[in-house]
What we know:
The complex is a heterodimer. By secondary structure, chain A is α/β, with parallel strands linked by helices. Chain A is about 35% helix and about 25% strand. Chain B has two domains: about 1-45 and about 175-365, no CATH class; about 50-155, abc type-2 transporter like fold, CATH 3.40.1710.10. Chain B is built from 14 helices and four strands. Chain B is elongated and about 90 Å long.
Amino acid sequence: MSPxxxxxxxxxxxxxxxxxEAGGRTLTALEGVTARxxxxxxxxxxxxxxxxxxxxxRLAAGLLRLQSGRLEVxxxxxxxxxxxxxxxLGYMPQRFxxxxxxxxxxxxxxxxxxxxxxxxxxxxxxxELLHMTGLxxxxxxxxxxxxxxxxxxxxxACTLVRVPRILLLxxxxxxxxxxxxxxxxxIVDHLVRAEQLAVILSTAYLDEAExxxxxxxxxxxxxxxxxDPARFTAAANGRSFHVSTPGLGKRQxxxxxxxxxxxxxxxxxxxxxxxxTEPGVQFSSTALPPLSGPxxxxxxxxxxxxxxxxxxxxxxxxAGSQPVxxxxxDVPVRAAQTTVHTAAxxxxxxxxxxxxxxxxxxxxxxxxxxxDAVSFTVxxxxxxxxxxxxxxxxxxxxxxxxxxLPASAGKLRVAGYDLRRAAASARGRxxxxxxxxxxxxxxxxxxxxxFFASAYRLAEPRRRARIAWALEEFNLATRSQDVxxxxxxxxxxxxxxxxxxxxxxxxxxxxEPTSGVDPLARREFWRRxxxxxxxxxTVLVTTHFMEEAEYCDRLAILAQGRVLATGDAEHxxxxxxxxxxxxxxxxxxxxALLQAAxxxxxx
Amino acid sequence: xxxSLERLAGLLRKEALQIVRDPSALAIAFLLPAMLLVxxxxxxxxxxxxxxxxxxxxxxxxxxxxxxxxxRGTPYFTPESFATIQSADRAFDSRRVSxxxxxREDFTRRLISSGAAPIGVFVNGVxxxxxxxxxxxxxxxxxxxxxxRGRSLGSARGLPIEVEPRVRFNPAVSSRDYLVPGLIAIVMxxxxxxxxxxxxxREWERGTLEALMATRASIREILLAxxxxxxxxxxxxxxxxxxLAVTLFGVPFRGSLLVLTGASALFLLAALGMxxxxxxxxxxxxxxxxxxxxxxxxxxxxxxxxxxxxxxxxWAIRLLTHIVxxxxxxxxxxxxxxxxxxxxxxxxxxxxxxxxxxxxxGAARLRARxxxx
Lengths: 603, 373
């Protein structure tokens, strides 16, 4: 059809824009995106939640009406001939629609029929898919009973029953344990190599960008980069360092470095502060206010994230007022300090230094053991992480810690209270921020704050003061009357944190606090958490996100209800360090620990 | 075409497996109807039966004794004698009795002199429906007693006109006989509209519909794969209700199975069309359930003539009942069970059902698109 002699690309977007109308408001999901995806390559669509990844995928799959621009799949115009375009593609939505009350075999069979795979081909294809995904032993298991990782693999297999020419994967690795994640990627790499597939894969995990051959960087609906990830990462060569100094905690050090001119990024990574400088800027101790000891600066290989943050910061700087979420980018974070004094005052836990103490904590649901003899302690002012995949037992542990779920066995003390006897008293000392936005979406910002103030029974002068504090410290004042459902993600997250801190708790529980949030908002969030911890608030974080684990002082790695390891990030990484793997990542450590752990009989 | 059939077969098999494995679908399709049937068959009856009645006779004699005996002889009342109207009043106030029959001291004298004497009747107007029924039955007893008395005294003294009420089609005047057939309409509304809307909303919620849409399956196949299984389920519910109605409750069936099946199929299509239409608006189960109950289930209950007579509704409501498919179906059902194949009832109502079915299914087809927006 196309006049040019060269074959059309697998996916071609030209000035694609998409707008959603909701309740009289228009929301720009994509704007003027021009890009392409090639055969035999993984094209990563990289960006935080709300960047427009899913809209792009759905447009390409012909599931949304194209509002403007042009979109082609192997030269077929998706708007004009959606079925023709669909004939080339396999699409796996974010939550792939597996029929949970159908078995693995029945799900595969359904999709084989829907894609008109001839029975003769089907047998060979099924065998190949089952081998590739490792699902063969589970053919007669209901899809609903599979682990998160296996569900994703089954979803992928269902999408692949008929070999597509282009495969669209919308966040296939969200919430999946690192081992399954690695396996999913191996399958994708194999497809690209062996079958010359064009794979378009969206993800919010920046470490996955490095596995793609080509990446499209999306930020608030705009394409801010289309590049080769290796070259993109290499742009930060010589600008990334691990910094530490004796006599100063990593968090204080990070706080000092963050404001220094020429520094693009300063984050906590294990025992160090990871510093990324602006191009051409040499980082040295002279840039910092005087320190008590010498500064150790070790150059480290750059990460994709280093370059991405550099790009985002430059966008923010040039756009000026553009990103609403970061209306006050340079307001020094003092969020916690007011909290802090009172928190420090009230925190005299009878249990000594251990604010949270779990001993042989167990929770059973019928025959199923969700949490199996888990033990750990968290000290005052510590940031402690529970790292594990979906279904590892994090949420159950969390609910027991909050006193929302009684433990089946074991000992549990929070803020000096035995949760079996005084769950309510303990709860008064706890602030909790749920993973999903769990405030009242129909209420305005200030109404939510008022509600939480009254829920925590704050009396009048203090109540007013706390609400004023929340509005000011979390930069919420400009939108205090807005309905909170319609706030941008970063705002919602700040509001969630403000509500959790209304009653100045000694302990803060954060459930997957920054999953899907863009890297800048995540940094801002963690700066607040760091200063809270510095002031003596104890912070407990659950996450399945390896990066987030690096921010913690110590962490416990959970899998199938058991603790595989506890300790600080470096200590855990040390356990797998070897000649073959001199610089293991947290993910490497996680996978090694998983493989070393005794497998329960039927996983 | 065979590729399309292949896809449809895959979808149907999936749907069947899900129905069999999902207890909630089976509960709505069979358990709920069974409960409704038992409730309406045993519990809800609109006939007065053994109603406690206070009888005050101020001057008892042979004539009054004969009237009280007549009251006692009916299955409707259990009369209890009170000496004075005051004591009867107290029993009435304390709800020991539901009505009072008051024969004054001049009852016999006036009856003999004029041939008719007034009796005082008090009923509790709080429950207007029952009150009217008691009143009606009392009048019937009174009239037939007068007539019998007239005959025994020789027609000279009798009433000039004798009322001989005859109830056609439901001689026993049993409300069960017309409630239970009407239940078929309710049962089919539950499976056709409520269950279908819920099942599709669940597919939206779980993201399975999005995955289906990205396959080769056409929207027609996706819709048919919902229509066919729930059509079968709905017809199954109809047969089950019919069998239980006739065997367990002894409700007569005077029409033909063919007409009943045909009318049921038309009504079920209309209900399924509404279910599909609802699911194109509501993408979560809660909203879908709410809408289905309000626009299909409640009208089938209230506005169909199933319980409340359409003829006695205010005109605006009566007008509204014309878009309630259950109304036409209930008319056919009542005719089929109580009267037989009355074509003057069946033909226009079936035609109306066919029109509504075409409208709802057609609208559902038009609204359904293989897109998410």
